[in-house]
Design goal:
Layout: H1 8-30, H2 33-49, H3 61-93, H4 102-109, H5 113-120, H6 124-145
């Protein structure tokens, strides 16, 4: 039996179904809503470009979601590795990437614990614990980046 390739419509449906959750997931990992939106776009662009590599049934929404989320993990890893070089290149060229408007940023970044819990399908207590752990991890990472005091 010949393998079926996801259609434009199936990938668009996957984006409509999973795009918002993917933005939240990527924002939590990058602490940058603008970057998260860009990475979602790159994720689905890669899925479209590489759809011949999909091995599941494109009519199976869960299989298609698992595949696109796997792509998103790779896109995130690539972005984290190349992020510093890209920002330096943009500054050198004097180029500015398109930016989200303030209301869009607030909608993505300023979520209450009940909203976060509902979107992740966890309790509010678990959402608070995750946010607390993430903030501690961020603080530790920032401390690691701080130059040691000379004295």
């Amino acid at each position: 039996m010949a393998r079926r390739i996801p259609t434009d419509e199936q990938l668009a449906a996957a984006y409509r179904r999973d795009g918002r959750r993917l933005v939240v997931w990527l924002t939590r990992r990058t602490y940058d809503a603008q970057l998260a939106v860009d990475l979602v776009g790159e994720t689905y662009a890669r899925a479209l470009a590489e759809r011949r590599r999909f091995r599941g049934d494109p009519a199976d929404a869960e299989a298609l979601a698992a595949w696109t989320w796997g792509i998103a993990r790779n896109v995130l890893g690539d972005a984290l590795r190349r992020g510093h070089a890209e920002r330096r290149a943009l500054r050198r060229l004097g180029a500015e990437p398109p930016l989200l408007e303030a209301p869009e940023l607030r909608r993505i970044e300023e979520l209450s614990y009940p909203v976060v819990a509902a979107r992740l399908g966890i309790s509010e207590q678990a959402a608070r614990a995750r946010v607390s752990r993430a903030l501690r991890a961020l603080a530790g990472a920032l401390d690691d980046l701080r130059p040691e005091a000379v004295g």
